[in-house]
C-alpha cells in the first residue's frame, strides 16, 4: 500500500508540452502521483536525465524505442553515461502525426517543415507524395517545432509547418493541414520512466530487464559468448543494439532488453555469467512490461529448477 502521507514524486519529461513523451507521462501517472500540470518539461533527453541525476525531480519520462525507427540514440547514450540511472517502468504510445501550421497558411507556401529527427523518417513517404519540394528542418522535439510556429519562441523559425502530435497543434493553437500522415499506421513508441538507483519494482511475473554490456576486447565469437549466457538460461531478448562507446573507432557496447526480473534465478545466473565473460555490465533496471504479457520460464529454468540444482551441488560438497 502507498503511504498517504508520503510526498508525491516530482516528475519530469522530455518536453515542451505537447510531445508524445508528455502523453506517455499522462498515461503513466496514477491518482497518487502529482498531476501532469506539475510535471517539469525539459528541452532535451539529456537535460531530463541530468535533472534526475541532480535530484531536481524524482522521475522522468523519455522515449527509448520506436517500432519504425528503432532505438532513440540520445536516450540510449545518455542513460549509459555519467552517474547510474534505472528504469522503473515503460509505456507504449501509438504514434499519429499531423501537419500543422499557423491558421490561414497556404499549403503551397510551405517550403520547410520542422520536426524531431525520429519523427521525420516516419512521414517521409507522405512528404514525398504531398510536399515533395519542402525541406526538412530538425527541431529538438515535435512539440518544439509547433511551439516555435506559434510565435512563443524568440524568433521566427526557418520553416512554415510542423510534423507533430495532434495534441501539440491544439496546445499551440495551430491549424491541422493534414491528419494521420504517418507512413506506418501502426507505429508505436516505447517510453521509459527513469529514476536514480535505490528501489527496483517487485517482480510482477511480466517483467523486463535492461543492461548495457562492455566486452573485454574485440575477438572472434565475442558476441556469441555473450548471447550464450541468455540462450543457456532460456531467456528471450526483446531488443539488442550495438552503440559506439566513443572511446575509439570500432569500440562498441551492447544495449539489451530481455524478459525476466533480476529477482528470478535464471536472470541472476545470466547476469553473473555476463559479469564473468564481459568487462562491465551496467544494470539499468527490472520493471513490469507495458503489455503485461506474462514471462514463462521453460521447465528447466524455473526458480525451483535452480534451487534444486543448487541444493544438489551443496549436498555433494557437504
Ligand atoms: O518529439 C516528441 O514529441 C517526442 O516525444 C520524441 C519522439 C521520439 O524520440 O521518438 C517520440 C515519438 C515519435 O516517434 C517522435 C519523436
UniProtKB/TrEMBL annotation:
<dbReference type="GO" id="GO:0004664">
    <property type="term" value="F:prephenate dehydratase activity"/>
</dbReference>
<dbReference type="InterPro" id="IPR045865">
    <property type="entry name" value="ACT-like_dom_sf"/>
</dbReference>
<dbReference type="InterPro" id="IPR008242">
    <property type="entry name" value="Chor_mutase/pphenate_deHydtase"/>
</dbReference>
<dbReference type="InterPro" id="IPR002912">
    <property type="entry name" value="ACT_dom"/>
</dbReference>
<keyword id="KW-0584">Phenylalanine biosynthesis</keyword>
<comment type="pathway">
    <text>Amino-acid biosynthesis; L-phenylalanine biosynthesis; phenylpyruvate from prephenate: step 1/1.</text>
</comment>
<feature type="domain" description="Prephenate dehydratase">
    <location>
        <begin position="10"/>
        <end position="196"/>
    </location>
</feature>
<keyword id="KW-0456">Lyase</keyword>
<dbReference type="Pfam" id="PF00800">
    <property type="entry name" value="PDT"/>
</dbReference>
<dbReference type="InterPro" id="IPR001086">
    <property type="entry name" value="Preph_deHydtase"/>
</dbReference>
<keyword id="KW-0028">Amino-acid biosynthesis</keyword>
<dbReference type="InterPro" id="IPR018528">
    <property type="entry name" value="Preph_deHydtase_CS"/>
</dbReference>
<feature type="domain" description="ACT">
    <location>
        <begin position="211"/>
        <end position="288"/>
    </location>
</feature>
<dbReference type="Pfam" id="PF01842">
    <property type="entry name" value="ACT"/>
</dbReference>
<protein>
    <recommendedName>
        <fullName>Prephenate dehydratase</fullName>
        <ecNumber>4.2.1.51</ecNumber>
    </recommendedName>
</protein>
<keyword id="KW-0057">Aromatic amino acid biosynthesis</keyword>
Amino acid at each position: 500500500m502507498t503511504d498517504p502521507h508520503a510526498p508525491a514524486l516530482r516528475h519530469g519529461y522530455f518536453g515542451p508540452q505537447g510531445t508524445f513523451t508528455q502523453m506517455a507521462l499522462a498515461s503513466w501517472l496514477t491518482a497518487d502521483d502529482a498531476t501532469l500540470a506539475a510535471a517539469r518539461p525539459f528541452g532535451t533527453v539529456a537535460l531530463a536525465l541530468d535533472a534526475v541525476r541532480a535530484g531536481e525531480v524524482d522521475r522522468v519520462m523519455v522515449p527509448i524505442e520506436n517500432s519504425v525507427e528503432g532505438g532513440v540514440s540520445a536516450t540510449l547514450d545518455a542513460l549509459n553515461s555519467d552517474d547510474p540511472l534505472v528504469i522503473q517502468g515503460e509505456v507504449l504510445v501509438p504514434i499519429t502525426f499531423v501537419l500543422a501550421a499557423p491558421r490561414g497558411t497556404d499549403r503551397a507556401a510551405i517550403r520547410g517543415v520542422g520536426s524531431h529527427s525520429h519523427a521525420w523518417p516516419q512521414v517521409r513517404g507522405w512528404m514525398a507524395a504531398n510536399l515533395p519540394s519542402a525541406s526538412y528542418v530538425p527541431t529538438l522535439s515535435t512539440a518544439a517545432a509547433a511551439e516555435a510556429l506559434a510565435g512563443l519562441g524568440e524568433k521566427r523559425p526557418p520553416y512554415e509547418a510542423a510534423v507533430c502530435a495532434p495534441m501539440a497543434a491544439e496546445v499551440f493553437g495551430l491549424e491541422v493541414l493534414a491528419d494521420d500522415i504517418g507512413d506506418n499506421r501502426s507505429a508505436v513508441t516505447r517510453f521509459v520512466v527513469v529514476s536514480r538507483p535505490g528501489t527496483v519494482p517487485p517482480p510482477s511475473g511480466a517483467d523486463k530487464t535492461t543492461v548495457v554490456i562492455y566486452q573485454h576486447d574485440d575477438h572472434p565469437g565475442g558476441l556469441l559468448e555473450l548471447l550464450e549466457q541468455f540462450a543457456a538460461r532460456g531467456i528471450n531478448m526483446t531488443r539488442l543494439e550495438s552503440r559506439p562507446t566513443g572511446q575509439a573507432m570500432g569500440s562498441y557496447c551492447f544495449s539489451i532488453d530481455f524478459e525476466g526480473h533480476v529477482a528470478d534465478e535464471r536472470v541472476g545466473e545470466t547476469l553473473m555469467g555476463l559479469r564473468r565473460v564481459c568487462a562491465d555490465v551496467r544494470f539499468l533496471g527490472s520493471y513490469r512490461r507495458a503489455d503485461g504479457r506474462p514471462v514463462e520460464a521453460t521447465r528447466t529454468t524455473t526458480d525451483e529448477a535452480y534451487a534444486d540444482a543448487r541444493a544438489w551441488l551443496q549436498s555433494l560438497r557437504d
